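Hi W.,

Here's what went into the run:
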Amino acid sequence: MSLVVENLTIDHGAIRAISNVSFKVAEGQLAAIIGANGAGKTTLLRTLSGLKESVSGSASWNGQSILEKKPEDLARSGIMHVSDGKSVIAELSVKENLALTGLWRKDKKDVAAATAEVVELFPILGQRMAQTAGSLSGGERQMLAIGRSLIARPKLLLLDEPSLGLAPLIVEQIFQSIKDLVKRLNLTVVLVEQNAMGALKIANEGIVLSLGSVVAVDSAQTLLNDPAVRTAYLGF
Amino acid sequence: MNQFLDMVLIGISAASIYSLMAISMVLVWRSTRVVNFAQAGMALLSAYIGYELVARVGNFWIALPLAMILGAAFSAFIEFVLMRTLQKHSSQGAIAAIAPIIAALGLLGLIRATIGFIWGHGDVQLEAPLSKVGFTFGDTTIVMSPMGLFVVLFVIALMIIVSIVFQKTNIGLALRASAYAPEIAQLAGIRVSGIRTLGWAIAGAAGAAAASAGAAPSAGAPPSAAAAGSAFLHFGLFYFV
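Here's what came out:
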C-alpha cells in the first residue's frame, strides 16, 4: 500500500495553489510536507481527503484513485484527515467526539477496544470524557482529534499542522506520539507542518513545497543537514 | 380567579403548539443552519393534508400520524431537491447563507398559493376527536377540555422523544455533529447530507404535528381552527423578517 500523487494541480479560487506536484509515500512511512505559509500544504491535504477538487493529475492509495470521492467515503475506507486548528467539535463532549468515528463502524467490539487504546495512549482524555471539547487545552484538543481518527482504525493518516498554536513542550509530546503510532500501528502518515525542524526530526522523508511546487524531496535526515535547503526553504 | 385560570390554561394549550412549531424550526436550524421561513407554510400544508385525511379516513387518530409522515416526507423532499441543489452551487460566502432563505420565502408563497388553489382561501377546521367541552369540577367548568389536555400531553411527549433522540442516540449525535461542524463530521466518516435530510424530516413531522393539533379546536374559547393556520403563517413571516 502506498500513496502516489502524480502531477497534481489544484486551484484555490482564482489562484493556482498547487501545480504539478508529484510524490510517493510508502506504507508505514511518515512523510513531512513542509513549507511556508501559503505554500499550498493545506490545499494539498484537503484535496487528498476529498474536501477539495483538483484541476488535473492523479492521486491514489493502494492503487485506487482517491480523487473525486466523498470525504466520508474516504474516511470509511481508512484515510483519515485531521484538519488543522479546530478539528474537534467544541460543543460536544470528549466522549461524543471520540464516538463519531465509531458511529458507522460495524464492529462495535473493536470500536470499544480502539477507544480503550486511545485512552491508554492519551490518559488525559480519559479524565476529561464528560467535559465539552471546547474546555480542553490546545494540546488536549490535538490529542482528541488524533485519538478520534485512530478509532476508525485508519491506514493512512493526513495530519494538518498538529503543532499549530501549541507550546513547544506539547508540540514535542504530540510529535513523539505520532512517531510512536506510525511504528506501532504500521500507519502511513502525511504530516503537513510549518514547524519544519520538528516535523523532519520524526519523519522518514521530507517534501518541501514552495509556492505550490515541490522544490525538494529527500530523506528527512538529508534535508535537515542540507544547508542550501535549510536556509532557502526551512528558515533555520 | 376563574377567568385568570382559564386564560392560563388557554395559554398553555396555545403555547405548547407554538413550542412544537419552534422545535421544528430549531431542528432545521440545528441540522442545516438554515432559517426556514417556509416552515410555517410547510406545517400549514401538513395541516391541510391532515384535514383532507380526516375527511377521507374519517379518523383523527389515523390522520394525525399519517399527516406527520407526509409532513416528514415533504420536508425531506424540500431539503433533498431545493436546499441540496442550492448548496451545491453556492457553498461559500454571503450568498450561501442568503440563498436558502430566499428560496424558503419563495417556497412559502408557492405553498400558500397551492393551498388556496386546492382548498380555497377560507378557513378549515379539523374535527376534534375528543370533547371540546372543558372539564367540570363541582359546578365550575374550566376551559381545559379533554382535547386541550391531549394536545398538551402530546406536545410534551414529542418534546421528550425529540430530546432523547438528540441527546442519547447515535442518530442524535450524528445530527448534532453535522450541525455544529459539518466538515469535521464528514472527515469522521459521517454521511452529513443524509443526516441533514433526516433532520428536515424530523422537523417536518414536528411541524405537521403542531399544525394538526393546532387546527383542531380544543378549548371552549378556541384559538379558532383557522387561526392556527394563519397564526403559523404570521409566525413564519413576521417573527423573522
